[in-house]
Amino acid sequence: MTPSPTLLTAHNLTAGYGRLDILHNVSLEVRAGEIVSIIGPNGAGKSTAFKTVVGFLNPRAGRVVFNGEDITGLRPDVVLRRGLAYVPQGRIVFPQMTVLENLEMGAYIERDGGRVKAALEQVYGLFPILFERRRQKAGTMSGGEQQMVAIARALMTTPRLVLLDEPSLGLSPKFVTLIFEKLAAMKDAGYTLMLVEQNATRALAIADRAYVLELGKNRFEGPGALLLADPDVKRLYLGG
User: Would you say 227 and 210 are in contact if contact means Cβ atoms under 8 Å apart?
Assistant: First the structure.
């Protein structure tokens, strides 16, 4: 089977905050149709890698190529228009707006009403509860429901790649399970996903491929199932 085309390559990224480098020559790759997970201890540079890819941070060295174009250092709004969506950690919703208004905000770059309607239908197909609650204010929903709103809002631009930073952070066990089921359903629906996740075991279980970062460097990489079974990965990162 021929491998899918490469959608994103982050090549030898060195980046950080002020004069402090958090990433040191980190390289990542995502192919179309994959789920790629990034795991590692706190402070490993996982979220910093995402912020650099999306354009919130300019790398000191290295480059980011998305869909065949060099997007290194482009602003996040420009990157979004190229088809790269980002769901930051922390379930960020507009609390005083309804679910539907939140989703419509996700489509603010889309001028074609027909495409917005089609995106809404696809999102409601993946998250039926959001259709049921479309007139409810997002701020009155549970944490897990708000996370679904945040993810669904990112899908409203019909992105080629979705980056999710800690999608299960702070959720109840029931919603953690549900969010991972939704990520698998998104892949089945044709989305390409890359996620940073503290819940390493679950992140590896759904990943086609995965990376382990430690102290801002690549430590392990490979198919999710192989890393899940790797004795060193188990001992160092999976508490086993």
Answer: yes
Q: For residues 156 and 85, give the distance between their C-alpha atoms in angstroms, rounded to a whole number.
A: 9
Structure token digits, residue 82 = 């190229």
Helices (H), 82-127: 99-106, 113-126
Q: End-to-end distance of the chain based on CA atoms, in angstroms?
A: 34
Closest CA to 123 of 143, 105, 142: 105
Question: What average pLDDT values come out for the chain (240 residues) when binned by 10 residues?
Answer: 86 94 96 96 93 95 96 93 91 91 85 84 94 95 93 93 94 92 94 95 96 95 96 86
Given a contact cutoff of 8 angstroms between Cβ atoms, the answer to whether 14 and 62 are in contact is yes
Distance CA 1, CA 162 (A): 24
- Pairwise CA distance, residues 50 & 132, whole Å: 32
pTM above 0.85, yes or no: yes
Residue 214 β-bridge partners:
217
The count of other CB atoms within 10 Å of the CB of residue 111 is: 8
Categorise residue 172: left if φ over 0, alpha if ψ from -120 to 50, beta otherwise.
beta
Residue 61 CA neighbour count, 13 Å, CB half: 9
Those residues whose C-beta lies under 8 Å from the C-beta of residue 100, and which sit 6 or more positions away, are 134, 135
